[in-house]
Structures are given as C-alpha cells and as structure tokens.
C-alpha cells in the first residue's frame, strides 16, 4: 500500500509540475528525471532519494504520463 501511495504521489507531483509546460518543457522535465538516475549514489541521505532511486518501471510510467499529459 505504501508503494502505491508513493507512486500516486509521484504521478500527481509530475502533473502539477508540468501543467503549464509545452511539449518542449515536458521533454526537458523528463530528461531531468533520466539524468537524475546517474546521481543516485550521491543523494542517499537526501530527501529526494526516494525519487532518484525508483524502479525502472515507475520511471517509465512517469515519463509516459509526462509525454501524454
């Protein structure tokens, strides 16, 4: 249940963040998510670490939702 709540929160936050962005802006936001994967080891004690260490499946779902918003 906790994982599902986290998933819903991530998707909701993405929607709020991209609401006023055009296609180019949404792509840039998605690119930022992809680039963040490379920094996962540097953020282990950070508040953002849950999103940077997420599963590939959740990241794919988030990116699909961003591009189809």
Helix content estimate: 55-70%
What is the domain tally? Answer: 1
What's the helix count? 4
By secondary-structure content and strand pairing, the structural class works out as: mainly alpha
The ordered H/E elements are HHHH
Q: What is the averaged pLDDT score?
A: 78
Please describe the biggest sheet, giving its number of strands, its sense, and whether it closes into a barrel: none
Q: Which consecutive residue ranges, at least 5 long each, have pLDDT under 50?
A: none
Measured distance between first and last alpha carbons: 25 Å
Q: What's the total number of strands?
A: 0
Strand content: under 5%
Work out the radius of gyration: 12 Å
